[in-house]
Amino acid sequence: MSVTLDIRLKRANKVYREGEVVSGVIVMVCKEAVQHHGIFLGMEGLVSLQLSSKSVGVFEAFYNSVKPIQLISSNIEVAKAGKVPPGKTEIPFEFPLNTKSNKVLYETYHGVFVNIQYTLRCDLKRPLLAKDLSKNCEFIVHCQPQKAKVNPTPVNFSITPDTMQNVRERSTLPKFLVRGRLDATNCVISQPLSGELKVEASDVPIKSIELQLVRVETCGELCRSNARDATEIQNIQIAEGDVCRGLAIPIYMVFPRLFTCPTLETTNFKVEFEVNVVIVLQDDHLITENFPLKLCRV
Fold first, then answer.
1. Confidence of residue 66 (pLDDT cuts 50, 70, 90)
2. Which has the closest alpha carbon to 69: 21, 22, 118?
3. Architecture of domain 155-296
4. Each residue of 33-48: pLDDT tens digit?
5. CB of 226 within 8 A of CB of 273?
6. Can you give the pLDDT at residue 59?
7. Strand, coil or helix: what is 146?
8. Domains 3-142 and 155-296 share a fold
9. Strand partners, 274
C-alpha cells in the first residue's frame, strides 16, 4: 500500500524572517485508505559546527564535530490517530517563526565548517508492521534588515611587485602595474560587488584575470582557535588572454544565495568573506590581491 507524503510551503521562494508565520500544507496521496497513529510536524533550526584539521588534527576532525547549537525547536500534532482517505489529502499548517530563551535566528548559510539550516519535518506514524513515513523540507531564513544606511566607500588599489606579500625573491618577479577600484567593500548582500580594473603595464603577457570569492570560517569556543579556514565559494573569469593596456575591465560579482550570509561573529563561530583579484601570467606566475568584505542586509 503506497502512500506519498510531501510538505508544500505557500511561499515559492521559501524565504521567511523572524516573527513571520511559516505556512503551507501537508499533502498525502494514497490509492486506499491508510491507518495511522498520528501525524506530527516539527520545526528545527540548527547551527552545525565541524572542527577543521588545523585545530584538532586530521584524524580527530574526521569524526569530531562540535555539539550543534539549537536555535529553534517546536512540534505540533497535525492530526490524531485515524485514517487517511483514498486520493489526495491536504492538511494546512501554520508555524510562528519565533525563538525561545532570547536566542537569535541567524541567516541560513551552507558552509564547509559552519552550517545554519532550518527544516520542517513531517512524521506519519504507522501501525506496528508498517514503516513510519517522514518528509523533510528546508526553508530559508533571512535576518532582519539593518536600519542604518550603508555608505559605500570606494577602495582604489594598485598592484605592483612592491605591493606583493609572501614573496621570497622579489627580484625574480616580472614588472607589472595594475590599477583598479572596488565600489565598496562594505557590501549589501542583495547587490553585486562592482568596480573596474586596468592593466597599465606588464612585462610578461597575461593569461587570465579572475575574481575569487572566499568564505573564512572560524570554529571553537569563544573563537579562540587560530584555525581560520578559507575556502573558495566561486571563481569568475573577468578577462582572458593578454588584455589591452589601459582598458577598463568591469568587475561584477553577484553574491550566491545560501553560500553567503551577512558577516557573522558569535562566541562560538565566525563567518567572514573576502574577495581575491587573481592575475595569472603566461609564465604561470600568480598575482593575488586580497580585500576583506563586510556583508550586510538592508
1. confident
2. 118
3. Sandwich (2.60)
4. 999 999 999 999 999 9
5. no
6. 45
7. coil
8. yes
9. 214, 292
The answer to whether the CB of 258 falls within 8 A of the CB of 109 is yes
The answer to whether 227 touches 216, Cβ cutoff 8 Å, is: no
- Give the span between the Cα atoms of 211 and 163, in whole angstroms: 19
Lowest mean per-residue pLDDT among 38-47, 54-63, 207-216 = 54-63
Q: Is the pLDDT higher at 116 or at 219?
A: 116
Of 293, 47, 114, nearest to 188 by C-alpha is: 293
pLDDT band (50, 70, 90) for residue 222: very low
Q: Which residue has the cell 491536504?
A: 90
pLDDT tens figures, 113-166: 999 999 999 999 988 788 899 999 999 999 988 777 778 889 999 999 888 877
Q: What residues does each domain of the chain span?
A: 3-142, 155-296
CA 111, CA 218: separation in Å to the nearest integer? 11
| 76: nearest Cα among 27, 41, 116, 122 | 41
Taking the C-alpha atoms of residue 243 and residue 66, their distance in angstroms, rounded to an integer, is 48
**Looking at residue 1, what is its pLDDT?**
54
Please choose, from the candidates 194, 190, 191, 186, the residue with its C-alpha nearest in 3D space to the C-alpha of residue 263: 186
In angstroms, the first-to-last Cα distance of the chain is 50
Give the three cell numbers for residue 132: 513510519
Question: In the CATH hierarchy, which fold is given to the domain comprising 3-142?
Answer: Immunoglobulin-like (2.60.40)
